[in-house]
Amino acid sequence: MGYVKTKDGTEIFYKDWGPKDAQPIMFHHGWPLSSDDWDAQMLFFVANGYRVVAHDRRGHGRSTQVSEGHDMDHYAADAFAVVEHLDLKKAVHIGHSTGGGEVTRYVARHGEPSGRVAKAVLVSAVPPIMLATKAYPGGLPIEVFDGFRKGVADNRAQMYLDVASGPFYGFNRDGAKVYPGVIQNWWRQGMIGSAKAHYDGIKAFSETDQTEDLKAISVPTLVMHGDDDQIVPISNSALLSSKLLKNGTLKVYKGYPHGMLTTHADVINPDLLAFIKA
């Protein structure tokens, strides 16, 4: 693990495990978490012979808590700084939630133009846009995201506990098996990060229209989404983004929650491996 300094002086923390000559897989985490959220996937893929890389988004985890730059353009550029520093080639980029938006912009603006990306995966991802607009009237109203902003500003510690113990993992569903350690780990990751980065990041993940990014991507892209995602509803995300991609494949998981990478890693990981190997 180490740090990369970006053009604006931000230090981005990253992990780099496995053989340096193996095909790299780079993971992009969701809001308001860190690269630690990929533990189950990184351990799985390093055990399968891959080089695995994950970074903490600016203002998140162990990266610099800078005041500015909490938008998709900077997120993608920061990821590219890690890629260039490690000289990753033919990489597979996997993004969850906000990280899916980051991957979408990265591949469109940096990955394909530089010839460094082989495939992409969008898991429970925010594109094309979460907010209801004239182009996407099925999105969520601005009041939903204003509520997130208020929660971060007023008492983010309680908000993060409520999100993790409820809708994020589907722990609020009847009969759900609840894992207290998973809830505590989500809260831990969130609280390490910067409140300002998290507050500003709400606009980034909810209001960034990535229609043109999706249209620009030509590498094989797998779109994975649970149909019981209470955070990023499938109807205005995966079902739409998969149609905008030139080479997209949609895989829907019945009853799975937003945090299915953790709750259903035993199913998701082999599916990811099959796509990468194909």
Commentary on this structure:
Helices cover 44% and strands 17% of the residues. It has ten helices and eight strands. It has a single domain, classed as Rossmann fold, CATH 3.40.50. The chain is globular and about 45 Å long. Strands 1-2-4-3-5-6-7-8 form an eight-stranded mixed β-sheet, sandwiched between helices.
The stretches of 5 or more residues where confidence is low (pLDDT under 50) are: none
Fill in the CATH topology: Rossmann fold
Rg value: 17 Å
What's the structural domain tally? 1
The counted number of beta strands is 8
Multimerization status: single chain
Give me some keywords for this one.
eight-stranded mixed sheet; globular; Rossmann fold; 278 residues; alpha/beta; 44% helix; single chain
Quick overview of this protein structure:
This protein has 278 residues and is α/β, with parallel strands linked by helices. The chain has one domain (2-277): 3-Layer(aba) Sandwich (Rossmann fold), CATH 3.40.50. It has helices spanning 39-47, 72-86, 98-114, 142-165, 180-192, 195-207, 211-216, 238-244, 260-263, 265-277; strands at residues 2-5, 11-17, 24-28, 51-55, 91-96, 117-123, 221-226, 248-253.
